[in-house]
């Protein structure tokens, strides 16, 4: 193996890059701080370890520097096929470069197997995109297939799924922390990836290999670190220290500040004896949308319940699940009354009468005219006020998906009042429908 490296036109320049080459985890997060040699390490992995790799950036122009680097390593133009954006190296290995600027662009890679999926700046991708792409990681020859994600900490809530995937390594409060390079094992149980013991059937291995500016011999002796240290504290912690919990800064017109969401989630405890007081139901509108049910027990919010496609098929089936969940309790049930939701409302009225409320986001907001443009803006702003740390006792579940969705909406001030980004805009931004956040808003934006 070392002989292969010694004779290669690409050589690792740090111990961290060498660790990546020798790593045996199925899924790897590599990086942390800026300028730690992340992108170059992905190229090295494709040259030395994979057989047919796919390397993606979210936007194709971001691949230009990688193209230039490959031309330095392999100057002869015969190795590159521009029409296919593919490099074929002297020993027959290949590397395809691509991008997914739109959520649905992942579909162009459907059915095209690769033994390595390499994502540069992984937090720019949505979790749904990454899950879809990994379905085509396979090798008929039995070679190991790996997902390797190089990334700095996320700069907004969109990339927080990376934090969720690698919490044992990057969350200092994790009850069972992992060391850099240590393998841990995970399996999807009850719809969620959970850590399991080594050797568990159908489990996959993950690890995080931290890479720092000091690992890059070409930049570590320059003044780059000094310049980064003079950035605003939060940004410096993310880019220089690789702090995955520091980078998500509030945008100027963000409806709910990141710190307010985190503080509410930090108060959450497992289970409650409080009575169920409110239920929010965001019904599927078809496609990849989900039906999500969120129960609130006074100030404690339960983890979201996501219904299967079969359970979401009709208003009657959704209603049956809601009635099963609430049992003998008498909560107020608020339903997004569009599409299947209108049928759910009709069914629920027959069982719980006035306790069921249909919420139409486009309708006029309650209260004084000119404060909010519609009901959606009123409800989101109501939740914002309930999460203000100065007065809030609300406990939101510690879900990364919820954090990502609640931190995404922005608002504008118009002549008709406060306007919150539409669901359609957020779908384009997040790569998925913000169903969990909408269900929480329905459950929590009332008294």
Q: How does the SSE layout of this entry go?
A:
Blueprint: H1 2-6, H2 15-22, E1 27-32, H3 38-48, E2 52-57, H4 64-73, E3 80-81, E4 86-88, E5 94-99, E6 116-120, H5 127-134, E7 146-151, H6 161-165, H7 167-170, E8 184-189, E9 192-196, E10 204-211, H8 224-229, H9 233-239, H10 258-266, E11 278-282, E12 292-297, E13 300-301, E14 305-306, H11 315-326, E15 332-336, H12 340-352, E16 356-359, H13 375-386, H14 400-406, E17 411-414, E18 417-420, H15 423-430, H16 435-444
Parallel strand pairs: 1-7, 1-10, 2-5, 2-6, 6-7, 11-15, 15-16
Antiparallel strand pairs: 3-4, 4-5, 8-9, 8-10, 11-12, 12-13, 12-14, 17-18
Helix pairs in contact: 11-12, 14-16
Could you characterize the architecture of this molecule?
- The protein is α/β, with parallel strands linked by helices.
- The chain folds into two domains: 2-239, Rossmann fold; 258-444, 2-Layer Sandwich (Nucleotidyltransferase, domain 5), CATH 3.30.420.240.
- The protein has 16 helices and 18 strands.
- The strands form three sheets. The chain has a ten-stranded mixed beta sheet. Strands 11, 12, 13, 14, 15 and 16 form a six-stranded mixed beta sheet that branches.
- The chain is elongated and about 75 Å long.
């Amino acid at each position: 193996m070392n002989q292969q490296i010694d004779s290669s036109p690409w050589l690792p320049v740090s111990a961290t890059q060498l660790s990546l080459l020798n790593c045996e985890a199925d899924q790897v997060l590599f990086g942390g701080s800026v300028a730690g040699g992340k992108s170059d390490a992905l190229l090295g992995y494709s040259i030395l370890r994979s057989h047919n790799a796919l390397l993606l950036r979210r936007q194709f122009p971001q691949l230009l520097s990688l193209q230039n680097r490959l031309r330095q390593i392999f100057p002869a133009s015969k190795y590159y096929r521009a029409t296919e954006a593919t490099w074929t190296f002297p020993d027959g290995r290949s590397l395809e470069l691509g991008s997914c600027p739109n959520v649905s662009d992942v579909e162009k890679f459907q059915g095209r197997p690769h033994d390595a999926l390499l994502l540069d700046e992984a937090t720019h991708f949505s979790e749904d995109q990454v899950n879809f792409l990994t379905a085509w990681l396979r090798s008929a020859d039995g070679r190991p297939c790996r997902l390797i994600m190089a990334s700095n900490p996320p700069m907004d809530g969109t990339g927080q799924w990376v934090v969720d995937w690698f919490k044992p390594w990057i969350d200092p409060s994790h009850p069972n922390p992992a060391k850099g390079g240590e393998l841990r094992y995970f399996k999807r149980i009850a719809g969620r990836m959970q850590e399991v013991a080594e050797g568990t059937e159908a489990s996959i291995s993950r690890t995080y290999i931290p890479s720092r500016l000091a690992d890059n011999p070409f930049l570590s002796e320059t003044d780059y670190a000094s310049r980064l240290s003079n950035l605003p504290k939060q940004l410096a912690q993310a880019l220089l220290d690789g702090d995955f919990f520091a980078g998500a800064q509030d945008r100027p017109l963000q409806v709910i500040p990141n710190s307010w969401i985190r503080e509410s989630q930090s108060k959450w405890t497992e289970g409650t004896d409080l009575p169920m007081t409110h239920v929010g139901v965001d019904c599927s509108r078809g496609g990849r949308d989900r039906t999500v049910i969120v129960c609130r027990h006074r100030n404690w919010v339960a983890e979201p319940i996501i219904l299967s496609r079969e359970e979401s098929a009709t208003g009657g089936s959704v209603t049956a699940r809601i009635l099963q969940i609430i049992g003998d309790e008498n909560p107020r049930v608020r339903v997004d009354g569009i599409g299947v939701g209108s049928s759910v409302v009709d069914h629920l009225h027959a069982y719980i009468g006035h306790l069921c409320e249909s919420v139409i986001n486009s309708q006029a907001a309650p209260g004084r005219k000119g404060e909010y443009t519609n009901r959606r803006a009123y409800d989101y702003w109501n939740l914002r006020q309930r999460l203000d740390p100065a007065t809030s006792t609300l406990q939101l579940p510690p879900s990364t998906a919820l954090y990502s969705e609640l931190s995404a909406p922005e608002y504008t001030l118009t002549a008709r009042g406060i306007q919150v980004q539409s669901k359609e805009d957020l779908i384009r931004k997040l790569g998925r429908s913000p169903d969990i956040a909408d269900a929480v808003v329905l459950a929590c934006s009332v008294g």
